[in-house]
Structure formats: C-alpha cells, structure tokens
Amino acid sequence: MRNLRLRIEYDGTDFYGFARQQGVRTVQGVLESTLQSLLQEPITIVGASRTDAGVHARGQVVNFFTSRPIPPSRLVYALNRRLPNDLKVLSAREVSAQFNARLSAKSRVYRYTLYTGKHPSVWKIRYAWHFPHALDCAAMHAALQLILGEHDFRPFSVKLPDEKNTVRTLYRASVHPASNGVQIELEASGFLRGMVRLIVGELVQIGIGKQPVDSLRQRLLSRSQATRMAPPQGLCLMRVKY
Q1: Tell me: the pLDDT tens digits for 143-168?
Q2: Whose CA is closest to 144, among 193, 189, 202?
Q3: In the chain, where the domains are located
C-alpha cells in the first residue's frame, strides 16, 4: 500500500465543513467519493484540520492509502478534472507509511480577514467579515501578544467534554492592515473547535475600544467562556507545517 499526501484548497461556502457527515456536502465526503471513483477502491482520507462549515482553506493537507500505482503528478491532473470548482488539489506526493496528516503536523496557520469598507462588496462577501468600523490594529496586536505560549484555551472553544485536552501552544499572532480591512494571523500547535473565531470575536471588541487590551489574557486566567464568535467566511487555513 502507498501513502499519498495531498495539499488541497477549497472555498468553504457551500461545504458543511471538512469532516464527512451523513446527508450533507463536506470536503472529506466529496474528495473521498472522487478518489474512490478514480481509483476503484475504498478510500479514507485523514485531514490535518477539521475546518467548520463556511471556512476556507488554501493549504489543507490530507493523506490516504492506495494500492494503485498512479504517479502523483497524474493523480493531481485526474482529480482536478473530476473535482468541483470549489475544491482542487494543489500537489501530491508519496510519503512514508508513518505519515499522518493530523498527527504528524507541527503547527497550523490560520488567517482571518475583516473588510471594513462602508458598504458590502460582492467580491469580498464570501471571504471576509464585513465589519464597517475603524479598528485599532496596534491594540489588537498587543492583545494577542499577551496570550502567546502554552495555555488552556477552553474559554475560546465551543462546548467540549470536560476530559478533553484543551491545552494548546500559540506560537505566533499578528494583526496588520490590509486593503480596506484587517488581517489576523495565528499559528499554533493546534486549534480547538471555534477557537480562532472566538478569539477574533473578542479581538474586534478591543479594536473598537469596548474591551481593554488585556481582556483576552484575563479571560484565560478567569476561565470565563467567550461568547462573541466571528462569522466563518473570514477564516482560512493557510498552511500546515511538518
């Protein structure tokens, strides 16, 4: 059996998230069914990150095992001819049998985009949160620097079982102006479900002056649950590092 690693991108607007679910369209479901049709054998893929409904990816990584001898370059071409326009393969290569897209990952990089123009934009509405207010990028950036490192990020996650490990390491975080908006980038060992969107939801309150700069850190210390969740369309998985 050969272990193949794919780097894929997708527009998450019309997907009900990455993970396979019965009766709804998901990235894993579409990719697995396309692979099975092409290779004529059962295929199960492993993804590096389980993005939620509406969340995009430019650098998602998956792996799967196959007995077929198809060369990786030909596989990319054949898959992209069959896949829908909102899901494409960027590259493929054979890896060791021990490689696992999720467990082998060292970090994931997510980017969140806010569009601060006065009126909604047809060209941005699927890929950014329309937030027509001035944001203090310096204050937002300073707030993120206060939560770098290893922490229990349970306050910035959707409800999880008490026994689930919610400790993650935030390696890097930045906020910078973009064209008519703001981009927030986070790199961590892993992310809890809803973690980036809940951090961003609180961060914009800092950006408009309604919360102090240390409110993210105080929430971690007090273990009080964050409730403001940014919408999914602004979030994109940019890269998985190994």
Answers
A1: 999 999 999 999 999 877 776 899 99
A2: 202
A3: 2-95, 107-241
**Which CATH fold topology does 2-95 show?**
Alpha-Beta Plaits (3.30.70)
Is 152 annotated in the active site?
A: no
Task: Determine which one of 14, 52, 86, 162 is catalytic.
Answer: 52
119: tokens are 């009126």
Q: Facing residues of 182 across strands?
A: 114, 177
pLDDT digits (tens, 9 = 90+) for 19-34: 999 999 999 999 999 9
Q: Do domains 2-95 and 107-241 have the same CATH topology?
A: yes
* Strands 167-178, 181-188: pairing kind: antiparallel
Residue 27: name the closest of 2, 61, 67 by CA: 61
Q: Please report the pLDDT score of residue 163 as a whole number.
A: 65
**Looking at domain 107-241, which CATH architecture does it have?**
2-Layer Sandwich (3.30)
